[in-house]
Amino acid sequence: MQAKIIIKRKFVAGKRKEIIALLRELRSGALNRPGYVSGETLTSAADPHTMVVISTWQDMESWYKWKENSTRETLEKMLETYQKESTSYEEFTLGAFIPD
């Protein structure tokens, strides 16, 4: 089942060039991963230091393999040096399912 991952980051001011370069590296790495479908990066209109990435994967397993990839983990640690707080992740699957 298709997976949508919402990744939220709040960055410090003054490091836009470095942040964008790392985000591009992450996207480039994801593009080459099995199961990657698409991604988009959004900047908050209310707070330009808050960014959200919406990443779409063929299934949750493909996402988990990329999330746990050592190259991705290294890039994520580099990004965290420019963040006000830790990255937050929300993971969703496509479709309406309400458990009993």
Description:
With 100 residues, the chain is an alpha+beta fold. The protein has one domain: 2-Layer Sandwich (Alpha-Beta Plaits). 35% of the residues lie in helices and 30% in strands. The protein has three helices and four strands, in the order E-H-E-E-H-H-E. The protein has helices at residues 16-31, 60-67, 70-80; strands at residues 3-10, 36-43, 50-57, 88-93. It has a four-stranded antiparallel beta sheet with strand order 2-3-1-4. Strand 2 (36-43) and strand 3 form a beta hairpin. Helix 1 packs antiparallel against helix 3 (70-80). The protein is globular. The mean pLDDT is 95.
Number of helices: 3
CATH architecture identity: 2-Layer Sandwich
SSE arrangement, N to C: EHEEHHE
Distance between the termini: 20 Å
Give the class-level CATH name.
Alpha Beta
Q: Strand fraction band?
A: 25-35%
Low-confidence stretches: none
Strand order across the largest sheet: 2-3-1-4
User: Main sheet?
Assistant: 4 strands, antiparallel
Radius of gyration: 14 Å
**What is the CATH topology classification name?**
Alpha-Beta Plaits
Structural class: alpha+beta
Average pLDDT: 95
The strand count comes to: 4
How many domain regions?
Answer: 1
Q: What level of helicity do the residues show?
A: 25-40%
Rough shape? globular
